[in-house]
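re: ur question from yesterday

yeah so i grabbed the chain u mentioned. its 339 aa long if i counted rite. heres the sequnce exactly as i have it in my notes:
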Amino acid sequence: MGESVAVWVKSLGAAEKMMPERTVAHVLQGYLDTRCGSVETARDAVLVRSEESPPEVLRVWRWRDIDLCLIQAGKVQVVPHRWAPVPDELVHRAGVIVGYVVDGAVCITQDRRTIEVGRGQVVLYDGITPCSLRAEVPHRYLIARIGGQVMPLRAQERAVLVVRDLSPFAGAAALSSLLAVLVDVGDDLAPAAGGHLGDAIVSCLQAIIAEVRGAAVGQRSAVLFGQLTGWIDAHLLDEDLTTELVAAEHFLSPRYVRKLFADHEVTVSGYVRTKRLERVRDELSRPWNAHLPIAALAARWGFHNPSVFSRCFARRFGLGPQEFRRAVAGATGQGASDA
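ran it thru and got these structure tokens back, copy pasting raw so excuse formatting
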């Protein structure tokens, strides 16, 4: 929601790091991990080595589910501040980091794979596996991090997408074009508008993932899945939105519908819940709903148990509904009911 300030925690002399005499190392944190104030616990803490002045953090901001940072630098090497092994079962929860080169070029290395990314190109890497960056020329680099609760990646999708050439994917071209425009969006953008732009970034990533899943499960299956989810999206206000109803409306068996959704690693009820939570979030973002009780907005979208709804909302978006509403109200200067 709000802006955050990246922090240069300390600078280390060349002798301390046993690096070339002209090289200086700086520890940077807080440019993506906007809710953490300590270098010891910040997940984004990195060691930046440069022969020139340290990189300049031009802007740090948050759009709904996405933390973004725009950095300008010259010749640098960037490595994690701490190297620690990560259990395989945690990797899929790490979410995705999108890198977009505004100017210049950078090299990204992760999982022993290296890719050079030039101006106007995007690269994906996960948010938990150690990753390094190297640049030999002046550059501007936009980084966006999407949490795992919003953008989980399966192992086979990581293998295809992380630190790979994304040019074959139509979604990557759309994402590049979008980020090229968003770099110049000003700080005076309305929070609700920023939220929708954040959603657009997520949608482009989902398009890329859908292309990968479509190839894996078969084009016919992917098309049918798109048809079913499109129908569900249009009927989210229907109280009795079950697997059986979806199957009956499309002349399919419930068993086949369950298998189709399982191929995309989701259930019908899980998909419905996620989409309804997003609708409630959108309702809470609208100033004209500020006087309406949260419970009433949740009930409109099928959540009749406030405590269950609050837990689901916090798990999905990282903030409880009251915290989310207060954050929106603070950003817009509007009053809000916590009921």
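noticed a couple things. The chain has twelve helices and twelve strands. also The chain has a mean pLDDT of 80.
anyway ttyl
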